[in-house]
Amino acid sequence: MTDSERIVPDEETLDPPDWEKFRTLAHRMVDDMVTFLQTVRERPAWRPVPGEVARRFDAPLPQEGIGAEAAYEEFREIVLPYPMGNVHPRFWGWVSGTGTPFGMMAEMLAAGMNPNVKGYQHSASLVEAQVISWCKEMFSFPETASGLLVSGGSMANLVGLAVARNACARGEVRRHGLQAYERSLTLYCSSETHSSIQKAIELLGLGDDALRRVPVDEDFRIDLEALGRMLAADRSHGAHPFCLIGNAGTVNTGAVDDLEALADLCAAEHLWFHVDGALGAMAYLSPRLRKRVAGLERADSLAFDMHKWLYMPYEVGCILVRREELHRAAFSLVPSYLATSDRGVASGSAWFADYGPQLSRGFRSLKVWLSIKEHGIEKYARLVEQNVAQASYVAAAMEASPDLELLAPVALNVVAFRFRTPELEEAEVDALNREILHRLHESGEAVPSQTVVEGRVALRIAITNHRSRRSDFDRFVAEVIRVGRQLVATGKHRSARTAQVPGQRR
Ligand SMILES: *Cc1c(COP(=O)(O)O)cnc(C)c1O
Predict the structure, then answer these.
(1) C or N: which end of the chain has fewer Cβ atoms within 10 Å?
(2) Counting beta carbons within 10 angstroms of the beta carbon of residue 305, is it exposed (0 to 12), middle (13 to 18) or buried (19 or more)?
(3) Does the model's pTM come out above 0.85?
(4) pLDDT at 253
């Protein structure tokens, strides 16, 4: 090597110094991940991160690189072995999607092409536009509707409610803000509505007080009479009710509001109809289940998640808005440095940044596009049906057991239940069920989550998992009973921490 070759060049790149070495590493990464998914059933549903592993994440900012091989080894050692568990067939906590192997590879392709899907003329824009068209078709929305892929249900709710606010607040909110309004804007939803709606209302400057929580009936659906009374009372006090939010599947119990009745009411009372379908909208794909969520296709804005019940890898959700011009009016802002032109990259009509707060946007449509092509939408409908049938199956097994009780009817894919025993007081039953939950998690046997239903601690499963089998549910029910009985027999539930009922977190 001559001296001049040894001199460090002043031009650098992040590309691999040796492409063939990188290719070998990349193939190994693919192999490892395919094996990871293929063998997921052999591992526990969850295991805690050991202290000595967690401490390794305290290391300071690396000044010098260690190279791709060494960095990947660290991933294999301290990241990959401690997953959340939602890829596992017995993970039913919160509302968690499982993802798919092909979806995983789609993420690699998207990252490799790495387009910025703000708009302009390139294939990713066409992919996203087509996925949005498919979404309209899936939910019987008109072709003239608009849509946007977003990070998930929370962002979909925020975008939908922003459009609602701007469309309904008479005057120019974008120019004058909410200060210009004398009458306070109010919205309505059931008391079972997801916390992301509250966050959206707060972010939109409306304030949580504007969000009126309507009581629910015995099936945890919005009480229409109470809703009517609240609307009338607010109007008589000078408020301006402008929006009604319906649930297609609540987190606690999977309840579906009477969406047809809500759509009728919105038409009669001139309210914007927003549907939060993050959990349950996909039931609409199944001809057999469609009637359970019927009415969502009448929404002015429909929010739904594809990383939950469409089994796409995180993150991807979608908002559809019936009237495109109102959607665009809420977000469109095209400064000169972003203007489209007749020719070149900046040509093309797609301009997604006009329909939401994000300018730069990832290629999240690719995994949806490829996955729907891989399986066809009918297979997704069958899997949704399978999960609903599994929920009924578990519920029936629980009803048949003297040790278990259901805490809510099973409307879709959520089962809320608890272990019961006549020997214990209510507070002790709460503590007992929390202890059962912790033991199920810590043993890696299964991952349900907890909530509170009518003041009682509930264990709940939300089945948005294409890997679960009937036998997984048999095993789960048997294990809940075994652990519960053992705790009661040994008096261990008494030592269980009697923590406060946890706040709403799903
Ligand atoms: C999960 C969920 C949300 C929030 O969706 P993210 O994808 O987590 O942002 C909103 N509403 C309901 C009913 C949900 O289940």
Answers:
(1) N
(2) buried
(3) yes
(4) 96
